[in-house]
Design brief:
The protein is of the alpha/beta class. Helices cover 39% and strands 17% of the residues. The chain has helices at residues 24-34, 48-65, 75-80, 95-102, 115-124, 151-157, 175-180, 190-193, 198-209; strands at 10-15, 38-42, 69-72, 85-88, 107-112, 128-131, 164-166, 185-188. An 8-stranded parallel beta barrel has the order 1-2-3-4-5-6-7-8, surrounded by 6 helices. Helix 1 runs parallel beside helix 2 (48-65) and helix 1 packs parallel to helix 9. Bound molecules: 4-methyl-5-hydroxyethylthiazole phosphate (TZP) and magnesium ion.
Length: 211
């Protein structure tokens, strides 16, 4: 397991679908202050120049606090931003061709939507995976929830080798259920970003994950 990810439990995403641009720094700091162990910049549908400008505001906050900064989708932007990692989906290219682009140092994560995809991502050499959506979620529209059925198996089979972050429709309110199903690591987006106090919400989520 990548040393930077061994103790990671809660993955926060600064998603421009929920975070106003002027709140970028405050939101990043709130997620980190509440206990997020990784931060991803996710800005679906924005121009690359725009994403680059947003990333330039987030990257230094992550660097200063020692939290890995991950860029969604764009290998070129991850390089340009000196990011600590890149996150790609099933249709964003193969592990090997992406690894060639970003070099050996950067973390490389993959979204997976089934047990087969999770096993395949491990076999291909990804540093971590997202596994979900567990529940249907407006943050990722058009994908059914895969439920909790395979969470325990995938945590055992894959999650003991590389971090498995369960994702999709996870909230503080259903987190105990997700943990009881066997999840050790999670990504939570809207529940943290739409909370009245993101720092407090993140801290609550971190506590619900347990030791
Ligand atoms: N990939 C699978 S589900 C999802 C992504 C990016 C969205 C998770 O967001 P939320 O708001 O925590 O359901
Ligand atoms: Mg993608």
């Amino acid at each position: 397991m990548h040393p930077a990810l061994v103790s990671s439990r809660l993955y926060g995403i600064v998603d421009l679908g929920y975070t106003a641009e002027e709140e970028l720094e405050a939101t990043t700091a709130a997620l980190i202050g509440g206990g997020a162990d990784l931060i991803q910049l996710r800005a679906k549908g924005l121009e690359k120049d725009k994403i680059l400008a947003l990333g330039r505001r987030i990257q230094p906050i992550c660097r200063k606090t020692g939290v890995p900064f991950i860029v969604n989708d764009h290998a070129d932007l991850a390089i340009e931003l000196d990011a600590d990692g890149l996150h790609i989906g099933q249709d964003d290219g193969s592990h090997d061709e992406t690894r060639k682009l970003i070099g050996t140092e950067m973390l490389l994560g993959r979204s997976t939507h089934s047990p087969e995809q999770a096993r395949q991502a491990l076999a291909e050499g990804f540093d971590y995976i997202g596994f979900g959506p567990l529940f249907p979620t407006p943050t990722k529209q058009g994908r059914p929830g895969i439920g909790l059925e395979h969470v325990g198996t995938i945590q055992q089979e894959v999650g003991t080798r590389i971090p498995v972050f369960c994702i999709g429709g996870i909230k503080r309110s259903n987190l105990p259920e997700v943990v009881a199903a066997g999840a050790r690591r999670v990504v939570i987006v809207s529940d943290l970003l739409t909370a009245a106090d993101t720092t407090e919400a993140t801290h609550e989520a971190r506590l619900l994950l347990g030791d």
